[in-house]
Design brief:
With 248 residues, the protein is of the alpha/beta class. The chain is 44% helix and 14% strand. It holds the Pfam family Prenyltransf.
Length: 248
């Protein structure tokens, strides 16, 4: 690892490591197109890349890695692409996640409205979460049928119910209490958000959680994303001056 950093001329300070990195895994389709391959091939390579980056993130001691895998808007894609993505997801849980569960201390958590996914996929998710809930390694948060606005609406509805039932007093509603209603109630906000593929937008990802997150964009397409990109993003992050609205 140290050799690798030296070779790539990347300087990382252990004391300034982000604890939570979020990634919008974008660019699979364009990666495939460039090679004259079907979009599905891009998704397949993208899934392999995810496995590689998860293992590396665990190796470097990251605490949380949240990845955007399927958005609430991705249902708009052609039916066969959606089906292909769902099948890939099944395969990913059956092979890669099984392997991670056997061989590592990684914890799996899924965020998003999974009730809209096929039953067998929901079962895979619940099983992986249940079997890893007490593990203490990297927490991998997979956003599936996730939309930031949907998450906030869902939180508002549940909060409104608790107010209606007299469980919560409206005067007690503040940011800390609201957070408890989000899918990420038990996860700190991301320190760093990485978006490859050249797009410079958030695409409905973690809207509440990224209020003070540092952004890192790159033209590299997700299937071409490498460990050194992650390290470069961390290096750049460590040079940022996070003021959170204050002065220094
Ligand atoms: C990201 O790659 C994967 C998903 C959104 C599921 P894309 O499929 O969006 O790839 P591009 O943006 O078309 O290149
Ligand atoms: C964001 O990528 C969603 C995921 C990576 C899962 P999209 O490709 O769907 O986003 P847009 O359409 O370019 O904003
Ligand atoms: Mg895209």
């Amino acid at each position: 690892m140290l050799e690798f950093l030296k070779r790539k001329k990347i300087k990382i300070e252990k004391e300034k490591m982000p604890q939570h990195i979020a990634i919008i895994m974008d660019g699979n389709g364009r990666w495939a197109k460039k090679r004259g391959l079907p979009r599905s091939a891009g998704h397949r390579f993208g899934a392999q890349k995810l496995k590689e980056i998860v293992l590396f993130a665990d190796e470097i001691g990251l605490k949380y890695l949240t990845v955007y895998a399927f958005s609430t808007e991705n249902w708009k894609r052609p039916k066969d692409e959606v089906e292909n993505l769902m099948n890939l997801l099944r395969e990913f849980f059956d092979t890669e996640i099984e392997n991670l569960i056997k061989k590592t201390q990684i914890r799996i958590k899924v965020i998003g409205d999974i009730s809209k996914l096929d039953k067998d996929i929901q079962e895979r998710i619940i099983s992986a979460e249940g079997r890893t809930k007490d593990k203490r390694g990297l927490c991998v948060v997979i956003a599936l049928n996730y939309g930031g606005r949907q998450e906030i609406i869902n939180a508002v509805k549940n909060l409104a119910l608790d107010i209606k039932n007299g469980k919560i007093d409206i005067e007690d509603v503040d940011e800390e209490l609201f957070k408890k209603y989000l899918y990420t109630y038990d996860i700190p906000d991301p320190d760093l958000l990485i978006r490859p593929s050249g797009e410079m937008r958030v695409s409905n990802f973690l809207l509440w959680q990224i209020s003070y997150t540092e952004f890192w964009f790159s033209n590299v397409l997700w299937p071409d994303f490498k460990k050194e990109h992650l390290l470069k993003a961390i290096e750049d992050y460590q040079k940022r001056d996070r003021r959170f609205g204050g002065v220094k």
